[in-house]
Amino acid sequence: MNSELPKNYEPASVEENISRTWLAEKAFAANPAASGEPYCIVIPPPNVTGALHLGHALNNTLQDILIRYHRMRGFNVLWVPGIDHAGIATQAVVEKQLKEKENKTRHDVGREALVQRIWQWKEQYGNRILEQLKRLGCSCDWERTRFTLDEQCAAAVRETFFKLFGDGLVYRGKRLVNWDIFLQTSVSDDEIYHETVKTHLWHIAYPIDGSDKKMVVATTRPETMLGDTAVAVHSSDARWNWAIGQKVRLPLVDRLIPIIADDILVDPKFGSGVVKVTPAHDPNDYAVWQRHLGQPDAIDIINILHPDGTLNDNAGIYQGMRRDKARRQIVEDLRQRDLLIKEEPYETQVGHSDRSKTPIEPYLSDQWFIKMAPLAEPALEVVRRGLVRFHPQRHAQQYLAWLGEKRDWPISRQLWWGHRIPIWTREFELTEPLNSLTESAEPISPPATAALRKALGPDAETVLKGGEEHILRVEAIADRPDWMRATVCVRREVAAMQQVLEKCGFEQDADVLDTWFSSALWPHSTLGWPRATAELAKWNPTSVLVTARDIITLWVARMVMMNLYNMGQGRWTSDGQREAQAKIASDPEAAARFVPFHDVAINPTILDGKGERMSKSKGNGVDPVEIIDTHGADALRFTLAQMATETQDVRLPVKKLADGRNTSEKFEMGRNFCNKLWNAARFAMTALAEASPATVSRNDLSLPDRWILSRLGQTIAAADLAIKTFRFDQYAKAVYDFVWGDFCDWYVETLKPVLKGDARPDAGAAVLAAVLDASLRLLHPVMPFITERLWWQLNEVCPQRGVAQVLDCPTSARLIHASWPTAPAVDQEAETLFERLMQVITAIRNLRNQHNVEAKKAITIRMEDAQFSAQDLMTHQAIIELLANCLVLNAQTPPPGTSAQVQAGGCLLTAYGLSDPDAERQRLAKRREELVKQIAALEARLANPNYSQKAPPQLVQQTRSQLSQAQAELGGIQ
RNA sequence: GGGCGGUUAGUUCAGUUGGCUAGAACGCUGGUAUCACACACCAGAGGUCACAGGUUCAAGUCCUGUACCGCCCACCA
C-alpha cells in the first residue's frame, strides 16, 4: 500500500488530485444557513491587468491559512474571491494592443466597441488569475466569484452614488487635475511617479506697465506664461511691495496682468521674489486663484491647452502647437525680444503618468467630487476606538493621518472602462431671469419648475417628479445669468427612464467612476448589498482584511468609510456628522456592526535580494506558478508564511535560471520540509500497517510518549496564539520545529525499537498514529495539499486514532473538514526528564565526534549524580544507548583506554575506551578556557554589591549556583 | 520638508514585560550510504547586536543623537 507513496514527495500529481477532489465535493462552499460563528474574508481583488506575483501569493496564502484554520475550528467560513476591473490600467493595456495590432486609437473604434474588447480581454486574463489562486490552494467559494464591474457590484455602485447625491455629498466642480495628454484622461495622484528631468530654469522679464522697471520671473515651463493671470510678490518684500496693485505687460501676448500679494505662494528668500501665476496649469497657482476669489484682488483663470496637449485659441500665435514645440518657440521669441534674462541648467522632478509614461499636465476640468469631511469622521472614530484594529498596530497612524486631512475625493475619470457616472444633464436658456436660482438644493423653486415644464413638454412631469428613483437638481451657470443647468441622478439602470431623459435632451455624463469607488464597496457589495441577503446578515462585518500597506489609504480607509455610510442607519449628511460621531461614542457595539471588518492584517512587501521592489520592468519578479511547478504549492506557501514577520519588507534573493526564469533558494526550505513530513508519515504508516495500534490511555504511556504529547500541546497553543495575533511566521516556526525537531529527530527515533520489539509495539503505534493525526491537522492551514493526501492514507491504514483522556482524534474523511486538534495538557515532569536525556545524548555524541570514534563503534559510559539524580535517567538507559550508540555501565568494570568526563543533563558522564588522548587534551583545554571565562564573569557580577541588593533574589541565587557548578566542573578537570 | 520602518552569523530573518553562554534556516567545516527521508542524519565553527552617548545592579531590548538603506505623504516658482 505504501507503494502508492513514492520515496520523495511529488507535488504535481498530488496537488492536482486533491484539488480536483475538493472542487468536485464543493469543499469550499459556504452556506449562510449553516451553523457556526461567522468568519469571512473578502479577497483584495487583484487587478485584472496582471498575472499574480509573489506579493499576491503571500497575501493569499495568509488569507487561506486564516480561512482553513477557522474552518477547522468550526466557524462558518466564507472566503469571497474576485477581481478588480482596474479602470485606467486595463483600458491602457487594451488601447496599447489596439494601437500595436491595428494601428487604431480608441476614437477609431468608438466607446461601445472598445468596452466590448476590454470585456473579451477580461474573460481571458481574469480566468488566468483565478486559476493561479486555485493552483495556490486557496479555498475560496468559487461560485461567489465577483468582478468589480459585474451586475451585482454595479447595483451597489448605483445605489451608493444615488445615496451620496441625495445627501449632498457628491458635487461637481472645476478642478485642476493631473491630465495625461496621451490617454486623455485625468490621473489620480497615486498613479503618478516623479522622474528627475534635466531641463532649464528660464528667467523672463515682465515689464511693469507705465514704468521702465521689469520684474524677473523664473520658470521651468515657459509656455505656461501664455496663461499667466498675475504675478505675485510677498507683501513684506521691500523690493517689490510698492508695486502691488500695479500691472505688468505679459510679453508675447501683450496682456496686462495685476501684481498681487500672496504670502503663502511666495518665499521672498527664493529667487527674485516674484512668481508668475498660472491658475489653470499649476496646482499652487490654482490655490492662489481660489484664495483671491471674491476678494478685491481676484484674478482670472485662463486655460491654454486642448485635451491632447496642443495649445488652444487662448495661446495666440502659438495655437495648435504641441507643448514642447511651443516651449522652444516661446524661448526663442523671448530671446529675440531681449526678454530672456538667463537660461540656466536645472534638474527638477516632473510628474509622469504611471500608465502612459508621459509627463503630466495640470489641467482645468469639470470633475465630480465626494465630500470627505462627513464620511471621514466616523471612519476615524472607529479606528480610534479600536473597533477596527491594525496589525501591526503602527499602521493605524497612516490611516488616521490621511483620513484626517479630509481632502475631497475626485471620483470622475475620463475613461470608457468603468462604472459610468449615473448623471444626466441639460442646460436651458431661460426666457425670464430666475432670482432664486442660486443653489442646487431641493425642492426646486416654482419659477424653475415652470421653466422646465415649458422646455420639456409632455415628459416634464416624469422628470420633475423625482423621489425614489431619480433626483433632479437645477443650478445657475456661472457667467451666463440667463441659463440654468438641470442635473438628474438616476438610481437604477432602467432603460425607460434613460430614454425619457434622452428624449428630453439630457446627456449622460461621459465619465466613469474612479476604480476605488467600486473597491470601497467591496466588503458589502460582494455579499449582495443593497439587497438584504442572508449572506449580508451572516457575514457582514467580515472578520479580517489581509492586505499590503501601500493601499491603507486608497482602499482600506475608503472601505471603512463607505461601509459605515451604507450599512449604518440614518443619513450621514454634513449636519448629521456630529450625530454619527455621538452614535459611535454612545454605542460602540452598534457601530461595530457597520464596519467592513474588525481586523486589518498588513503583510510585508517582498523585495528582491538587493532590496528593490519586484516588478516586470525590472525583470526581478518571481512567478508563483513557476515555484509551484518546481517546488510545489505547499513549499511556496510554507516559505512565504515563514517570511510573514512584522517588518515592513522582506528580502528574497533572486536567482536566474539557465532558461532566464527567476527563482529563489529560499523555497527549498519549504520543499525540504514537505519531503520531511512525507517521509515521516511514510515511515509511520509502514509501521502502523504492520502493528495493530491498541487502544491506549494515559497510564500506558512511556516517557517519550508523554514528552511528545506534551510538546504537541505546547505547539498547538503556540499556533493558536500566533494565528490569533496574525504572526504567521511564528505559526510556521512552531509547527516546523515540532514536526522536524521533536517528532522526527527524537520521538520517531526512540520509537523505532519499540515498534520492532515485543514489549509494547501496539501502544507505541497508537501514540504514533495519534501524533501524526494531530500534526496533519496542525499543518493543514499552511500546507493543505500534502496533509490532505497523507490524511487519506492514514485513514486507510489506521482509521481509529487517539489517546484516551489525552488526545482525541475524531474521524473525518477529509482533512479540510476535520476539527482543529485540542492541545494535550503540558506534562512538565516528562518534558524536564526527556530534556535531560537529550542533553546527555547530545553530549555523548559530541564526545564521540571529538574523539573521532567510528560511527558503528559503541563506547562505554558511566553516569553519576551531579546536580541531579543519575538514576532517573538510567531508568531510560535504553534510549541513551540507542541514540548515542553507547553502553551505559552499571556495576561492571570499565574497559581500558582513555577516559573523558563531561557534565550534561545534571549528571557527570565518564566515557571509556577512547583511543585519542590528544583529542581529549585539546577538548579539556578548550573547556577549561570556557569555564574560566564564565567563572570570571559570574564572580564579577556577584562582586557588585548593587547586584545582590537590587536584582531579584531568585536571580542572584541562580547566579550563585551557576558559579559553584562551574567551579566544581573546573575542579574536576584540573 | 513631514511621517514610518530597517541596520543582529557569509546570506535571509527571529529575539515576548530589560535578566542563564543572543537563536533558526540556508551556506560553510568534519563525519555518515543506518532498513522514513542525502530534499537526509550526527557534530562543529561562525556575532564588538550600525555608531556615539545616557538610564539601570543589568541594555540587542528603554531614552537621546548620528550615519546609511527602504517606503509613504507633501513639494521648491
Question: In terms of topology, how is this protein built?
Answer:
Elements lengths: L10 H14 L13 E5 L11 H19 L3 E5 L1 E2 L3 H16 L3 H4 L1 H26 L9 E2 L3 H16 L3 E11 L4 E3 L4 E16 L6 E6 L10 E4 L13 E4 L4 E7 L13 E3 L5 H10 L30 H14 L3 E14 L6 E11 L2 H12 L4 E3 L4 H10 L3 E2 L1 E2 L9 E7 L16 H11 L3 H6 L4 E8 L2 E11 L4 H9 L3 E2 L3 E2 L1 H6 L1 H4 L8 H6 L2 E7 L3 H16 L9 H10 L1 H4 L5 E7 L1 E4 L15 H8 L1 H11 L5 E4 L2 E2 L5 E2 L3 H24 L5 E2 L5 H22 L3 H29 L4 H19 L4 H14 L3 E4 L2 E3 L18 H23 L8 E7 L5 H4 L2 H8 L1 E4 L8 E7 L2 E8 L2 H27 L1 H6 L2 H20 L2
Helix pairs in contact: 1-26, 2-21, 3-5, 9-10, 9-17, 9-18, 10-17, 20-21, 21-22, 21-24, 22-24, 22-25, 22-26, 23-24, 23-25, 23-27, 24-25, 25-26, 27-29, 30-32
The protein binds one RNA strand of 77 nucleotides through strand 8, strand 12, helix 10, strand 26 and helix 22.
Can you summarize this structure?
By secondary structure, this protein is α/β, with parallel strands linked by helices. Helix content is 44%, strand content 20%.
Walk me through the structure.
- With 974 residues, the protein is α/β, with parallel strands linked by helices.
- The protein is 44% helix and 20% strand.
- The strands form 12 sheets. It has a 4-stranded antiparallel sheet with strand order 6-5-14-16. The protein has a 4-stranded mixed sheet with strand order 10-11-9-12, with helices on one face.
- The longest helix is centred in the C-terminal third of the chain and has 29 residues.
- The protein is elongated and about 120 Å long.
- The model has no long low-confidence stretch (mean pLDDT 86).
- It binds one RNA strand of 77 nucleotides through strand 8, strand 12, helix 10, strand 26 and helix 22.
